[in-house]
């Protein structure tokens, strides 16, 4: 069996001409890691805000459609506690239908100027009525209604990714087993 090697398309050559990994990665101290991911997430979020990253709370939320295919959209994260990350939207949305049928999701934050990303995966639960009421009250728009909903991603895996021009990216992966977090470092230049 032979595999045909095709020449790159004009579009592929154009894509290759774009610069990649533009930005400056802050120091990532792997010697002093927190036991659970929320503390590190808040540290990275503060650094993104201080660096002037536009919309640091914007994240891509991925769900699974009724056709079994992934579906993604960008939204703003509303809260984060040791229990998870919160996001909102209309009960009548495709997102809500997808979560009702398959209550699992992933969030991806990309803070390009810092060459950092955070991935969150887990099950999704509806917020309590009082949390939903508080979210509706806090909305800065007149469109809040009974259709508005708040969900929580209960994470089972959180990955912190820091890019490197050398492509020796550092990935710190936290995994939860019934609320007990472990972590491991993949790639990067580790200093023991």
Q: What characterizes the major β-sheet?
A: 6 strands, antiparallel, barrel
What is the averaged pLDDT score? Answer: 90
The top-level CATH class of the domain at 36-152 is Mainly Beta
Shape: globular
Helix and strand composition category? alpha+beta
CATH architecture descriptor text of the domain at 36-152: Roll
Percent in strands: 35-45%
Contiguous low-pLDDT stretches (5 residues minimum) are none
Helix-strand pattern: HHEEEHEEHEEE
- As a percent range, the share of helical residues equals 10-25%
The overall strand count is 8
Radius of gyration: 19 Å
H/I helix tally: 4
| Name of the CATH homologous superfamily of the domain at 36-152 | Electron Transport, Fmn-binding Protein, Chain A
For the termini, the CA-CA separation is 46 Å
Description:
With 192 residues, this protein is α+β, with helices and mostly antiparallel strands. Helix content is 21%, strand content 40%. The protein contains 4 helices and 8 strands; from the N terminus they run ααβββαββαβββ. The protein has helices at 10-17, 37-50, 94-101, 129-138, and strands at 58-64, 70-81, 84-90, 104-111, 116-126, 148-162, 170-177, 180-187. Strands 1-2-3-6-5-4 form a 6-stranded antiparallel β-barrel. It is globular and about 55 Å long.
């Amino acid at each position: 069996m032979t595999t045909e090697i095709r020449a790159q398309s004009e579009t592929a050559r154009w894509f290759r001409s774009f610069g990649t990994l533009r930005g400056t990665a802050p120091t990532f101290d792997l010697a002093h890691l927190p036991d659970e991911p929320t503390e590190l997430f808040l540290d990275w979020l503060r650094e993104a805000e201080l660096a002037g990253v536009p919309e640091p709370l914007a994240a891509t939320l991925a769900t699974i459609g009724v056709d079994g295919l992934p579906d993604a959209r960008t939204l703003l994260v509303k809260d984060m506690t040791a229990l998870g990350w919160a996001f909102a939207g209309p009960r009548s949305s495709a997102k809500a239908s997808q979560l009702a049928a398959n209550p699992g999701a992933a969030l991806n934050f990309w803070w390009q100027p810092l060459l950092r990303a955070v991935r969150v995966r887990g099950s999704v639960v509806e917020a309590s009525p009082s949390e939903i009421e508080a979210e509706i009250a806090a909305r800065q728009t007149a469109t809040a209604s009974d259709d508005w909903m708040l969900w929580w991603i209960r994470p089972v895996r959180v990955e912190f990714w820091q890019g490197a021009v050398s492509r020796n990216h550092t990935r710190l992966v936290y995994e939860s087993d019934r609320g007990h977090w472990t972590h491991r470092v993949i790639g990067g230049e580790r200093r023991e």
